[in-house]
Amino acid sequence: LRSGITTLLNMEWATDPSLLDIYEQAGIRAIHTLTMTDYDQWNRPGMIMPLDKAFALAEALIARAKASKDGMIHFRYGLACPNSCTMGLMQEVRRRATEQGVAIHIHIAETEFEWNNIHQRYGKTPVQYLRDIGLLGPDVLGAHCIWLNEEDIRILRETGTSVAHCPECNMKIADGAAPVAEMLAAGVTVSLATDSCAVNDNMDMFEAARVAAFLQKLRMKEACVLPAYQALELATVGGAKALGLEAEIGTLTPGKRADIILVDLTAPHLRPINNIVNNLVYCASAPRDVVTVIVNGRLVMENGELLTMNVEEVYTAAEKYIVRRFSEAGLYVSPYYRFQRD
Question: How far is CA 102 from the centre of its chain?
Fold first, then answer.
């Protein structure tokens, strides 16, 4: 919210339904995803939740989301990625999602490893494999979608599958650069995303838009590719459409929900204002420049102050939690700011 984000999709591995209460308290619109996997080739402890427990939890989350005030909370089934889910699990999620009218979120073609793994097992790309088992469709949002060929892009367009582009994450962990320019040219719905704090750090959507634009210009060796207005569209209209909420949010239009942020344009780095879109995409940052946030007509932040919860209490609780988890894992930060293990 302090970054000017009014709607989020949170991909969680394990969730107590009470987390949805926190979304409502904060005043943010949330699409909550429970991530499922039934195969972990590295055998990491705690990565796989028994599927009977996972589906029972999903039912509870669906019920809780449906009970949310003003439809501010939504639920999606989550699948980690094609190479960490069996075909049976993905087809069962597709069956349940279709029957219950619930959407799906999944990582697709994020890494070269995933591409090679699926191709070796099935002789297909991840996108082709997911199409052939019936998973793709207008109710599916695929994160990353980096390792794609022309046929994959055509499949995404024909199935109506949307894409969440996470440029900063993809750069930080060296996944690669998604063919966003080609997807947009082909008519694929592409949205802009930050990914999680672990692989983005500051959750600044202005920065994400800026990096997305710069990355495509570099990829294509063409300065006119993904201009500022198009990068802004990925963060607004594209995001709304990818989430299936384009009738409610994404533009300031009569009849839609009132999701509005106010940006302080008096700072030197935002002057002169000769092209407001360029200024926002290439110069603005959050939370520095975001002063007011309204979600669904509700004032949740004013003059940089969050009105719905005590921010310092949240920070303190988060810091204590991190210290405890590091201690449990036997990790500490050395004087050289590198993680060490006892």
Answer: 17
Backbone angles phi and psi of 32, in degrees to 5: -100, 130
What are the CA-CA distances from residue 12 to residues 19, 78, 258 (Å)? 10, 8, 27
One-letter amino acid of 271: R
Q: Do the Cβ atoms of 26 and 309 come closer than 8 Å? A: yes
- Interstrand relation of 73-79 and 29-36 (parallel, antiparallel or unpaired): parallel
- Cis peptide upstream of residue 50 (ω within 30 degrees of 0): no
User: Do 148 and 176 meet the contact criterion of CB atoms below 8 Å apart?
Assistant: no
CA separation, residue 44 to residues 16, 108, 116, 167 (Å):
22, 21, 21, 27
pTM of the shown model: 0.93
CA 39/CA 246 separation, integer angstroms: 35
12-41 pLDDT per residue, tens: 987 778 889 999 999 999 999 999 999 877
Within the chain, residue ranges assigned H as helices are 19-26, 51-66, 87-100, 112-122, 126-132, 150-159, 167-172, 180-186, 197-200, 205-220, 228-235, 237-242, 276-283, 311-329
